[in-house]
Amino acid sequence: QVQLVESGGGLVQPGGSLRLSCAASGSIFSKTMAWYRQAPGKQRELVASILGGGSTSYVDSVKGRFVISRDNAKNTVYLQMNSLKLEDTAVYYCNRGYPPQLSWGQGTQVTVSS
Predict the structure, then answer these.
(1) Cα 25 → chain centroid
(2) Which of 12, 18, 46, 75 measures 20 to 30 Å from 39, CA to CA?
(3) Separation CA 40–CA 90 (nearest Å)
(4) Is 6 within 8 Å of 105 (Cβ atoms)?
(5) Is the pLDDT of residue 99 over 90?
(6) Largest CA distance in the chain
(7) Are strands 66-71 and 76-81 parallel, antiparallel or unpaired?
(8) 73 — phi, psi (to 5°)?
(9) Model confidence over 68-83: pLDDT tens digits?
(10) Could you tell me if 97 and 31 are in contact, meaning their C-beta atoms sit under 8 angstroms apart?
(11) H or E segment at 49?
């Protein structure tokens, strides 16, 4: 089964930016890929998705601030996060499709704090 490894998280001040990466051990070509997040005490939620053809969609709370992209040659999906808010604090995960089709990776922690 394809394994997913997320990276790029960290501690950032409100208004800052981070770029997350998700490296897949197998091909993601033509597959829908997605980023999810789970904040403390909350259920995991879908944040952004990108179809095989490149079309994207976002949860309302991140529209205009986050950008999902993909590099099929590198089997990698990215999440550029700008204008970060306190409420963006969460562990971020990527997966194939929605609902998710693969086992979860370890995720990457994003903490927005002043």
Answers:
(1) 16
(2) 75
(3) 7
(4) yes
(5) yes
(6) 40
(7) antiparallel
(8) -65, -30
(9) 999 999 999 999 999 9
(10) yes
(11) strand 45-50
pLDDT tens, residue by residue, 42-64: 999 999 999 999 999 999 999 99
DSSP state of 34: E
Residue 113 makes CB contacts below 8 A (sequence gap 6+) with 11, 12, 13, 14, 86, 89
Q: Please tell me the distance from the alpha carbon of residue 83 to that of residue 104, in angstroms, as a whole number.
A: 27
- Given a contact cutoff of 8 angstroms between Cβ atoms, the answer to whether 74 and 87 are in contact is no
Residue 114 token pair: 């002043």
What is the chain's mean pLDDT, rounded? 96
> Residue 1: pLDDT band by 50, 70, 90 thresholds?
confident
Residue that the structure tokens 């995991």 belong to: 44
